[in-house]
Write a structure and sequence with these properties.
The complex is a heterodimer of chains A (about 110) and B (about 130).
Chain A (H helix, E strand, L loop, with lengths): L10 H9 L7 H11 L8 H14 L2 E6 L9 E6 L1 H24 L6
Antiparallel strand pairs in A: 1-2
Helix pairs in contact in A: 1-2
Chain B lengths: L2 H18 L4 H23 L3 H35 L4 H8 L5 H28 L1
Helix pairs in contact in B: 1-2, 1-3, 2-3
The chains are: A mainly alpha (about 110), B mainly alpha (about 130).
């Protein structure tokens, strides 16, 4: 399947991919990051987040990294990171959004404030 | 912690734990523990911001979980049907699955429905007389 066939991404998918683009993160950190990046506009609940993560894992956009236990932790922490396919999809989506913004500027559609 | 918040917290944790059991087994095995851990973290954070915030977060989490239960069970159902039959048309497969119902079973189910209807009608009659 071509990368472009996955586009456009939903806002939730886009923010999740963007959140783990820089470094692998665990579920709670992804939730908080998405909330901060979207200025509290996209607030993910736990169920929604894990449904999305499961789908992305199945599609090969992300992968899971298990981190060994440190003192005081009862369970292994699972981090999520982008795969090559995931990064390609994110880059393609960013390109698409750039083109849209450029087009908007060209057409002068945005009212100057 | 105030009494109301504690009560709410206990109820929400119980309800969430029960609802988690409704997720499909493979999903629960893979993500159940993580979901529970994160849910506790979210609740702990909400608890510090007061009862109203806790209520808001609880409702958001519960409704999202209900949505996830529906979605994941549907996905799991489609996956199993396709895996079992190699079929793309799931409606035909579902119909096949219910072909084990023979005539007498259908009559028995219909009778039960009628029976429940009759009991309901009698209950309504009594309720109207009493009111």
């Amino acid at each position: 399947m071509k990368v472009k066939e996955y586009l456009p991404l939903t806002e939730t998918s886009f923010f999740i991919l963007l959140s783990i683009a820089a470094s692998p993160k665990h579920g709670y950190a992804i939730m908080k990051d998405v909330e901060a990046m979207s200025e509290q506009r996209v607030v993910l609940a736990t169920g929604t987040l894990y449904s999305a993560l499961k789908r992305m894992l199945e599609d090969g956009w992300i992968e899971r990294v298990e981190v060994a236990l440190t003192n005081g932790e009862l369970r292994e922490r699972k981090l999520y990171k982008l795969t090559d396919l995931g990064r390609k999809i994110l880059d393609a989506e960013i390109d698409r959004l750039h083109k849209l913004v450029k087009l908007t500027q060209l057409k002068g559609a945005r009212e100057e404030r | 912690m105030r009494y109301f918040e504690k009560l709410l917290l206990n109820q929400v944790v119980c309800l969430y734990g029960s609802l988690l059991l409704l997720l499909p087994y493979p999903f629960r095995v893979e993500f159940g523990a993580e979901i529970r851990d994160i849910f506790f973290q979210v609740l702990q954070e909400a608890e510090q911001r007061g009862a109203l915030w806790l209520l808001k977060v609880s409702l958001r989490e519960l409704s999202a979980l209900v949505g996830a239960i529906g979605r994941e069970n549907w996905v799991e159902f489609l996956f199993r049907v396709r895996k079992l039959n190699g079929a793309k048309d799931w409606t035909g497969v579902v119909f096949q699955k219910f072909c084990f119902l023979n005539k007498s079973m259908i009559v028995w189910i219909a009778a039960n429905f009628l029976g429940m209807g009759a009991v309901g009608a009698i209950f309504l009659l009594f309720a109207s007389i009493l009111s």
